[in-house]
Write a structure and sequence with these properties.
single chain, alpha+beta, six-stranded mixed sheet, five-stranded mixed sheet, 19 strands
Length: about 650
Amino acid sequence: MNLKRLLLALLAASGLAVVLASPASVVRAAQGAAPAPATSGVAAQQALADRFAPIAMLKRQPAACDPEGEPYQPAPVEVTLGAPEVTLRRDEGARNPANDPIITQAPTAQDLARKDGTYYLDLPGDSRQPGCTYEQFSKARMADYTPTVYAHIVTEPGHDGLALQYWFYYVYNRFNNLHESDWEMIQLTFDAPTAAEALRQEPTEVAYAQHGGGEVANWDDVKVQKDGDHPIVYPAAGSHATYYGNHIYLGWGEHGSGFGCDDTTAPSIRTPLKVVLTPDQPTATGSFAWLTFEGRWGEKDTAPYDGPTGPNTKSQWLEPFSWQDGLRKSSLSLPSQKTVGPNATSFFCSASEAGSFLFTATKRHPGLAYGAGALLILIPLGLLFVMREALGAAFALFFRHPWVFLGLGSVLFVLGTLANQAEETLRSIPLGGLLFNVMDLTSPSQVLFSSGGALTQFIGWTVVSPAVVFAVAEIQAGRRPRVFAVYRAALARLRPLLLAAARASIVIFLLAITIVGLPWAFIRIVRWLFIVQAVVLRDGTWRDARQISEAAVRGRWWRTAALSLAIALVLGLLAPISGIVVMIWLLPSPLMANAVSGLIYALLFPLIGITMTLWFERGGRAAPATGTRWRLHVQWPRWRPRLATPEGDEI
């Protein structure tokens, strides 16, 4: 019995010793806390990087070498390093990079180690005339590799927490500033001092780099798309700037947004990425020796066509929080709705793309590039100068009766806005889409409209323009037109106008679908520009409207075409430029910019009807003598206008 008590006492003492020796374990067990993770150091960093590895949504390329879509995948640097076609050169001031000395062919990571900013990689191809060279090179090399992203975990003195960065490498950048190689990144930040602690948490914020700047959001923000813990990244086609969604994004350089439009729209290819963790202290002899390279990863050129430097030269590599503090909270995306007339944001995208194309061509073909740029300026100015008299008469009439014509134009804004919404719905129907495509192709109003939905163009040509013609006739007859009265008169002539327009459209369509008949289709479009005036002012039937219009154009086809292009140019530039001014300097809203552009176009749209009506009545008549002005006189009820001098003598 005493022996049993002795054994129990010994067991109790042993248990007490264990508890006293490991109090933390007892406390954790009592609190139900999870044990500390087994990972630490590099293992914890790799586990953290794998847990939040991004998924890239690359814009689908319709076909090989197609300029649409994204042909390049995020690649390991081995795609470029070690490639026989790649050379490492040193910049010794040669004007032609081909004359810079070659340091080595097929350079390895060790060949790049500790090289300063005078060195650069030269990939196969001409960066300003890429063709399909870089795409074929990238795809051939990527056949042996998996899409890859490089993880870098860093802290910054003076800031709490750590940043987990993912760096993307692409073989080529096909944006406005074409250049070999491209480095992009995203960054997740944690309120934790170590990777092991961060594994217990979720990120606090996530930042996506875009050109020279970027955009930041809270981890739980609705715009941050995730698949579990994996953030979804939308690299813009060509530029690879990283975004949160699939849109067309606009930038004009503010806060490093880049200048131009980034496209991440669907369809997209979901691309999971292999994560490679970079070391904190890369050596000159290891596989990450390329992280000590300070030179450029692409061919030498003038800014902004130089190849980029690597991640280790960027400010965020060592100062992630300071970099993130300067980022935007949002990006401007292109509205999907059509507008009445020219679209300000689409105009901005097209203009920036055309400008960058010409600027890019100045190196290889300076004469052609500068010549094309000069023509883009001189041709519109020449049109405006040659047709200044006719345009001046139209503007004078408009501004003598502004409230009448502004009222007529406001109707187009309302009806056009509703028509665009209806067209969007009808285009989803196969036959509806075909119908509107035919209308886009065949309407004579195409010469007078810069852009806009087919249904809006149809309303402008068959409803608003006839009302403007009636208003001009009323004014020249000495009466004050009423907006609703002239619209009632216009609607009364709608049937013959529709029949005449349909007949003209069928002929144009039959010519256009033959392809070889396109020149004749355009000739007839100009000949039939006066169908509205023929029906309204000449009281013509739908059968003879074309003949009346052709008679008015006969002998002055080129001048009629020039005038129609000139007035379309005035409205086609004035409206979108006004919208862009509003967006850049007043209110950074693409939706508002497009609304302003559409409103200005609609309000000034009567200028088209005024211009073409005055020109129609000039057809077949002698031009007025120098120093005289001509006016339109109308006799009711036949609406037969006559030109007259200021003294009232008929011409």
